[in-house]
Amino acid sequence: MEAEFRAFVAAQGDQLRRTAYLLCRDWHAADDLVSITLTKLFRHWRRVSAADNPAAYARGVLTNAWLDERRRPWRREDPFDVLPDGVHVDPSGVEDRQDLLALLQCLPAGRRAVVVLRYYCDLSVEQTAELLGISTGTVKSQAAKGLTTLRAAKEQA
């Protein structure tokens, strides 16, 4: 059981971390979210491993963990300074990536979750609805509104 979980983490860990970063835009918070997610998954690994798509199940747990964290009052603080991590970043495509991350930040949490799951994780409307516990119509409307907001923000930038 533990070996199977370790193999899952090795295969899906980076994807979960990138998804978490797109949701919260903070690598430290993303690492915390992934830790919370993996802890929950390990606790219920027998059920998770029996699921049709454990990776999709993990994304759902991650998204719900992020939404739960957003509801906590101490998470509403905004830092004043950004401290450099000292990590070298490949400069190719950084401007586009930074623009996209800044644009995602302008979306409300629920709408951002829909946009990230639909267009970054490439989930279907039905899969996104199931993960977030909302109707397919809500996914469609939130995705459309999110894209409209992102396009308008891009034009203003």
TrEMBL record:
GO MF terms held by the record: DNA binding; sigma factor activity
Pfam family name, one: Sigma70_r4_2
UniProt-listed GO biological process terms: DNA-templated transcription initiation
Keywords: DNA-binding, Sigma factor, Transcription, Transcription regulation
Keyword Transcription regulation found: yes
Keyword flag Transcription regulation: yes
RNA polymerase sigma-70 region domain ranges (all copies): 12-75
InterPro entries linked to this entry: RNA_pol_sigma-70-like, RNA_pol_sigma-70_dom, RNA_pol_sigma-E_actinobac, RNA_pol_sigma70_r2, RNA_pol_sigma70_r4_t2, RNA_pol_sigma_r2, RNA_pol_sigma_r3/r4-like, WH-like_DNA-bd_sf
NCBIfam families associated with the record: SigE-fam_strep, sigma70-ECF
Name assigned to this protein: SigE family RNA polymerase sigma factor
Organism this protein belongs to: Dactylosporangium aurantiacum
